[in-house]
Specification:
six-stranded mixed β-sheet; hydrolase; Exodeoxyribonuclease III; metal-binding; alpha+beta; AP_endonuc_1; Endo/exonu/phosph_ase_sf
């Protein structure tokens, strides 16, 4: 079973690339971020044509997350995080599918920092930790995957000095991410690539893709009940080089049934 994550950076603009990827790699579950469309504009019928059913949590113009499953409709458990009734961003979607608890997240970027956007990022990460602790208490096989907007270590970026002032690399961002791991979650890509050097994002500017100036901000965290089933993981890097591609590449984990 393959569970994948893809920040598509606008589902309408990238739909041909997304459909190509789904048909060519055929993940059992695909979690999408930055769909950037209202609920009524989500192209569910296009996915149904190729055998995928979906649930989604949209928002006009930015944010938005979705979970697709091959031949089965995900059963929604929760959308949005508790703890801030004024937070109306579409960044969290949780479902049951194929016997797994699947959580798709689009964590706040936090730039510029310091400032209110960075403060919001840290609060959101604290709320995420609360929810992940609740999931852990259920002792279910679970995956929390998506765009975390955190570069966990210097080895996860092409040049640490180039990103040193960015919210993605601040000590408080990294600390909040590490707290999730200390709670018992496993970073799949880090486990299988301990030396780093594996990127999931390349900016559109300054020839970042052509020069391989990227970093890793898309992660898959596995509960203890699922970590033992991890067989392989990786990044579908070549899709970043296609015409009108997202600035992210899809990442995936392969699990024993």
């Amino acid at each position: 079973m393959r569970v994948a994550s893809f920040n598509i950076n606008g589902i309408k603009a990238r739909l041909p690339r997304l459909l190509e990827w789904l048909e060519e790699t055929r993940p059992s579950v695909a979690c999408l971020q930055e769909i950037k469309t209202q609920d009524e504009g989500f192209p569910a019928d296009e996915f149904e044509k190729i055998g995928y059913q979906a649930i989604w949590h949209g928002q006009k113009g930015f944010n938005g997350v979705a979970i697709l499953a091959d031949g089965e409709r995900p059963v929604e458990i929760q959308r949005g995080l508790d703890g801030d009734p004024e937070d109306d961003h579409s960044r969290y979607l949780e479902a049951e599918v194929f016997g797994l608890r699947v959580v798709c997240i689009y964590l706040p970027n936090g730039n510029p920092q310091p400032g209110p956007k960075f403060d919001y990022k840290l609060r959101w990460m604290s709320r995420l930790r609360d929810r992940m602790r609740a999931i852990s208490a259920e002792e279910v096989p679970a995956i929390v995957t998506g765009d975390y907007n955190v570069i966990p270590h210097d080895r996860d970026v092409w040049a640490p000095a180039a990103m040193a002032a960015d919210a993605l690399m601040q000590p408080k961002s990294r600390d909040a991410y590490m707290r999730l791991l200390h709670d018992g979650w496993t970073d799949a890509l880090a486990l299988h690539n301990p030396r780093g050097g594996l990127w999931t994002y390349w900016d559109y500017q300054a020839g970042a893709w052509q020069r391989d100036h990227g970093f890793r901000i898309d992660h898959a965290l596995l509960s203890p009940e699922l970590a033992d089933r991890l067989v392989a993981c990786g990044v579908d890097k070549s899709y970043r080089g296609r015409e009108k591609a997202s600035d992210h590449a899809p990442m995936w984990v392969s699990l024993k049934a």
